[in-house]
Each structure stands twice: as C-alpha cells, then as structure tokens.
Design the sequence.
C-alpha cells in the first residue's frame, strides 16, 4: 500500500507534461497561456517543495499514518477540483492543493517504511518502494496519452481518485500509526518564508516572459522580494536549534556542492521536459498517445541508469561515475538544439534514452553518497534539505525555461506579424499553440508555418541554455566530490565533516 502511495505521486509528476499541449488548446482544453501552464506545473512542485519538512514534523506529532491518510484525502479532493476546473486560474489553485497532498504523503510514506522494517528488510523495502519512481515515470505519459486520446483533459486528474480509494483502504487496514517519541517543531515561520519567497521569485521570473520591458516593477520587485524572503528564511533556520530545514549542512563542501549540482540538474530536467511536451505535440503534431510513447525512452533510461550508477559507484570513485554521466546528460539535452520539424524520430528516441540513462546514473548514487556523509542522527535533516533543493530546482526550471521559450518565440515571431490585424497579432504573440489555432480558423497557413519556425528557434536557444546550466552542475560536482587531502588525522575526522566522506553501502570513498 505504501508503494501505491508513492506511485501516485510519481504518476502525477509525469502525466501533467503530456497534458500541457491539450490544456493550451482553445477548443479541447482551457486556452491556457504559457504563464498559466508554467504555474500549473510549478504550483504543484512549489507546494511540494516547501511543505515536506513541515509534513514530517506533523507525522512525528500526530502519527505518520494519520498524516498519510490526510494527504491522500487532500490529493483526491484536489484531483477532482483540477479535473473540473473551469479556467486556468482554478487549475493552478487545484494543482497547488495537489502539491500539499503530495507533501503530506511523501515524508509519512518513508517514515512508515523506516518504522515498519528493520535490518536488511528495511533496505529491501526501501529499494522495492523506490521502483515506484521508475514505474510512475514510465506509465505516466502513456496513461495520460490513452486518457487524452479517448476522454477529456480532466480525466488525467480524475484517474487519481480510484487509486486513492484503494490506498486509503489498504493503509487503514494494514499500516500501524507510528509516531516519534520526540515531537519536532512545526516551524511555521520557516514554512511561511520559504513558500512566499519561492512563490514571489517564480512569479517574477514567469512575469518576465510575458512583458517586453524588464524595468517594470511587476518583474524586478517580486524577484527581489523573493530573494530577500529566502535569505531571511535561511537566516531564521540557521538560528534555530533543531530546524526543519538546516542550511548549515550546505556549508559542507561535499553535501552543499552535491546538492547544488542536483538542484541544477533538476532545473534542467524540468525545463527540457517542459520544452519537449510542446515540441512533440505542437511542432511535430503527435497525438497525446504518440507523445507519451515517444517519451518512454527517458523513463526507461532513468530506470536502468539508477542501478547501473550504483553498481559502478561500488567499483569506482563516485566522482569518476557521476561527473561524466552529468556531462553526457548536458550534451543530450543540448542536442535539442538540433531538433527540427522533420528530425527522424529514431534519433530523438536515442537522445532521450541517453538523457534518461545518464540522469539516472547521477541522481541515485549522488543522493545516497550525500546522505551518507552525515551522522545517522542528522540523516532526516539532510534528506529534507536534499528534497527541498531538488524540488526548488524543478520550480525555478519550469519558470525560467518557460520564460526563455516565451521571450525567444515572441521575438522570432514579430517579423511575421507585420500587416496582420491587431487582434490577430496579439493572439499570435501569446504562444505557438495560439498562433496555430488562429492559422487554422482564419485560413492563414503561412502564420502556422511561421509559428512553427519561431518555436523551433526558441527550442534551440532554450536547449543551449539548459546544456550550459547542466554543465555548470557537472563542474560543481567535480569540485564537491574531489578527494579529501591525505593527512594523518583524516581517518579520525568526524562523520559528516568536509574532510571525510564515509564508506556507505554501495558508495566508494571519493
């Protein structure tokens, strides 16, 4: 039952990307513009990222099964809300509520596994549960494609309800209500500062893609406010004796640098996934089912890459495994700059497989190594930091990636709009989806071709930026995982210090 709960979250992480093109359609969807789609994707991840550590504290206080069941109920209710949303604003709000449900589910799910199993059985249970990520990544796009092929867009959210009913029944009957003997602080100040800071920063970044003048207060003011709130958040958490999010851990070279590298990688993955969703269904004209099937190599690569990376890390220093893999991931993402309207699908599939394989080889082994650098009593705090940094990378990746797409598309499209009526120009500037729909309804095939060309140009520019950001992550990881200086006292260095990277199961000293 716990694996079903985890599967639910991973399915939700992947089905949305397949539904983006449909949601943008004025007839079949909600006529959602780029900013609304960025928020529909980012609101879920934003709530998920900023509430996870608070949800863990709630589980310690009220019982992890209680919190897990509450999360399932919230997830089901918000899924119904999303399915019947009447406009993009309602969808964004429903997706944020779904993120709240996921944030309640995830920490409780892991805590119950830790409490239920001991010894070797615990490692086996966590490993089996972790396979739900691969299953969700593989099944999500295909499931969304099947549903969108035969039903309306809301079906990709409504399908969550029967799964939640099954999970709730099993959890209620089979899972004990463990709770920690020591209740943690709920940290309302940290929750408020982190949520509002990330929301303001994301709003400013998304707003930058909607306007032509970045000197406007509604662009720079939210960005500055977001950065200020996040700085205050870090300062407040650093002064708390037992913070839910401990920024002091990031001061350690291996842990801090490794998490920064993972954050940059998740930034790139979120951005390139956002781009590919519109490329396959919009520019290439694939159906949701075809696009879902075309995305399978990425999931397959990630499923194969995680155990392969762990196996290699047992035989070689992690640095020699993760840094080359992250570099290959960067090049595979940058190869999106070669995509065109007639690029052979077989070549795209190979690139997606390589991308998924290399990403899988990085995330699992590096995450395990980072947590292993900490003493056992700080593993929970380290896990909260790692998960928050990764989800934050995804939020900012969608915001920045979508903004790059909007800005470059609009500038590339401008010359093709000369001489057209003002209403046509304004609608065609919004997005390639709007321009294609307008071209079909007003019988302007040249407008549709111009929109495709402008989108492909924006994809090329975006892919180049994503590649550079991922390469920066590889450089950071190369620095973070460099061997510690050989000193006589190195073996006596305390676990979790910068001078020692302890041997962990399946991870060699780097």
Sequence:
């Amino acid at each position: 039952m716990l694996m079903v709960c985890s599967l639910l979250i991973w399915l939700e992480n992947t089905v949305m990307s397949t539904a983006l093109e449909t949601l943008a359609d004025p007839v079949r969807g909600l006529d959602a513009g780029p900013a609304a789609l960025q928020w529909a994707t980012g609101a879920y991840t934003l709530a998920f990222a900023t509430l996870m550590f608070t949800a863990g504290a709630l589980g310690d206080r009220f019982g992890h099964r209680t919190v897990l069941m509450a999360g399932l109920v919230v997830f089901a209710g918000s899924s119904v809300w999303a399915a019947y949303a009447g406009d993009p604003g309602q969808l964004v709000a429903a997706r944020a509520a779904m993120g709240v449900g996921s944030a309640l589910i995830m920490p409780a799910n892991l805590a119950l596994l830790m409490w239920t199993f001991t010894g070797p059985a615990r490692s086996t249970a966590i490993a089996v549960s972790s396979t739900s990520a691969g299953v969700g990544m593989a099944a999500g796009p295909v499931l969304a494609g099947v549903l969108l092929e035969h039903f309306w867009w809301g079906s990709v959210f409504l399908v969550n309800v029967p799964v939640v009913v099954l999970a709730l029944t099993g959890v209620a009957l089979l899972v004990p209500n463990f709770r920690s003997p020591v209740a943690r602080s709920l940290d309302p100040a940290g929750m408020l500062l982190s949520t509002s800071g990330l929301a303001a920063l994301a709003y400013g970044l998304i707003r930058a893609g909607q306007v032509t003048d970045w000197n406007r207060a509604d662009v720079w003011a939210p960005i500055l406010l977001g950065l200020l709130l996040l700085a205050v958040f870090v300062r407040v958490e650093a002064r708390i004796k037992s913070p839910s999010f401990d920024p002091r851990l990031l001061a350690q070279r291996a842990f801090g640098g490794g998490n920064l590298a993972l954050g940059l990688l998740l930034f790139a993955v979120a951005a390139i996934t956002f781009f590919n969703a519109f490329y396959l269904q919009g520019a290439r004209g694939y159906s949701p089912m075809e696009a879902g099937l075309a995305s399978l190599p990425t999931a397959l690569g990630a499923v194969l890459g995680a155990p392969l990376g762990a196996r290699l890390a047992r035989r070689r220093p992690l640095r020699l495994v993760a840094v080359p893999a992250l570099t290959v991931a960067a090049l595979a993402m940058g190869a999106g700059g070669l995509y065109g309207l007639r690029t052979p699908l077989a070549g795209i599939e190979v690139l997606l497989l390589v991308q998924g394989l290399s990403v899988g080889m990085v995330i699992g082994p590096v995450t395990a190594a980072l947590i292993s650098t900490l003493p056992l009593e700080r593993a929970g705090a380290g896990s909260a930091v790692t998960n928050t940094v990764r989800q934050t990378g995804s939020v900012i990746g969608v915001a920045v990636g979508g903004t790059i797409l909007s800005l470059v598309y609009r500038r590339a499209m401008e010359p093709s709009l000369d001489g057209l009526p003002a209403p046509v120009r304004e609608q065609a500037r919004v997005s390639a989806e709007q321009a294609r729909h307008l071209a079909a309804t007003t019988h302007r095939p040249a407008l549709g071709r111009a929109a495709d060309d402008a989108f492909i140009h924006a994809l090329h520019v975006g892919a180049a930026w994503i590649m550079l950001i991922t390469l920066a992550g590889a450089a950071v990881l190369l620095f973070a995982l460099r061997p510690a200086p050989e000193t006589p006292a190195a073996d006596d260095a305390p676990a979790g210090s910068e001078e020692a990277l302890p041997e962990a199961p399946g991870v060699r000293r780097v």
Notes: Confidence is low (pLDDT under 50) at residues 489-510.
